[in-house]
TrEMBL record:
GO terms for biological process: systemic acquired resistance. Pfam families: DPBB_1. The keyword Nucleotide-binding does not apply. This is Putative rlpA-like protein, double-psi beta-barrel. It is found in: Secreted. InterPro entries: EGC1/2, Expansin/allergen_DPBB_dom, RlpA-like_DPBB, RlpA-like_sf. Keywords: Secreted, Signal. It comes from the Eukaryota. PANTHER family: EG45-LIKE DOMAIN CONTAINING PROTEIN, EG45-LIKE DOMAIN CONTAINING PROTEIN 1-RELATED.
Amino acid sequence: MERMGFKIRVLMVVMVAVVICLPSVTFAAQGTATFYTPPYVPSSCNGYQNDGVMIAAASDVIWGNRAACGRMYRVKCIGGTNQGVPQPCNGNSVVVKIVDYCPPGCRGTIDLSQEAFAAIANPDAGKINIEYTQV
């Protein structure tokens, strides 16, 4: 009987640990990425503030009426879109800051700066399939 009580206590500890850790688990969304070229200012979020080159514009999928401004996303190329280079990914990921809006008609979920796109894929591809996670 004492052994059964020990097993129940161990199970309870494991369940509590899972519940505590669960909020920290994030799932990557999938979409597409394109890129845009300089100049990067002005931007919809920050006007003429220089935010560097690891930046992106958000499509309606994540824009949320400017709620995406300032959010950071880790973006990873997961494959080509069969428009250009068949295997464009280089295995890297990049963290970008949302500083702009990619208006309706935007060809990607996230429109990366040219430098951010080149960090994860061959720019000759033009458009790639991605996984992205807010960080």
